[in-house]
Amino acid sequence: MIQNQDIRPAQVIGPLGEPLSLENLPSPTTKRWVVRRKAEVVAAVNGGLLTIDEVLERYSLTLEEFASWQRAVDRSGMQGLRVTRLQHYRDLYERQLKY
Which residues contact 37 (CB under 8 A, 6 or more apart)? Predict the structure, then answer.
């Protein structure tokens, strides 16, 4: 009898096109979240390498924080994760919704 097993890929494609596995994800002790690291974590969840719950626990993130990373990647790609351009991309997205 087949049971519901937790089947996960050994690796997924990262945001820069490189293979991404559990071993080369950002460290659980990461304090400085640069664009590449955020994008790697989002790619890991989107590819099924980690669940959202595992990411929240592993990196001590809030659901809102991680969800904002996912939205930023969905709307603007990796550039949307840049904190210095956050307002620019928000305004751009809101203008696109109007038209």
Answer: 26, 30
- Do you know the residue count of the chain? 99
8 within 8 A of 44, measured Cβ to Cβ: no
Range of the domain at 55: 37-98
Is 3 within the bounds of a domain?
no
Query: Phi, psi (5° rounding) for residue 61?
Result: -105, 160
CB 71 within 8 A of CB 34: no
pTM of the full structure: 0.78
The domain total for the chain is 1
At 53-86, the pLDDT tens digits run 999 999 999 999 999 999 999 988 898 888 766 5
